[in-house]
Amino acid sequence: MQRPSFSRIVVAVDSSAASERAVQLALSLAGRDTRSEVVFAHVIDVPRMIARADPLANDYDLALDAARDQARDVLDRCSAEAGRAGISCRSSIRYGKPADEVVALARVFGADLIVVGNGSATRVHRFLNGSVRDEIVRSASVPVLVAHE
Hints:
By secondary structure, the protein is α/β, with parallel strands linked by helices. It has 6 helices and 5 strands; from the N terminus they run βαβααβαβααβ. 50% of the residues lie in helices and 21% in strands. The chain has a 5-stranded parallel beta sheet, with helices on both faces. Helix 1 packs parallel to helix 3 and helix 4 runs parallel beside helix 6. The protein is globular.
């Protein structure tokens, strides 16, 4: 049986170990085809970020700047990894609900695969906050590969 070929892959990334595994998995799939391109997507969930900011300190701008810096660091590491593997890549910082933004980016990019990490979260956390992974799997129109830590 022949493996399917994926030439346009979107990878949802953050600073987790599961995300690092997703990057490795996507690059190993893309590396089979010299025409492959990978887009690394980091989504800043602005409403959640604002909810965590201290309203008395009025540190919304600082929180957003810190989130952007973290996003750039993560995306720079991913791009460097792709460069070492000789794989063409792009990076995207998006703002909004993470699952919606990843699926929208995949649609715009014409992706034929989305890769997302599966971090360890308790059932209570998933119940209260939902799971980005589950939302992507439910709403994506292309296959979703879930990478475990």
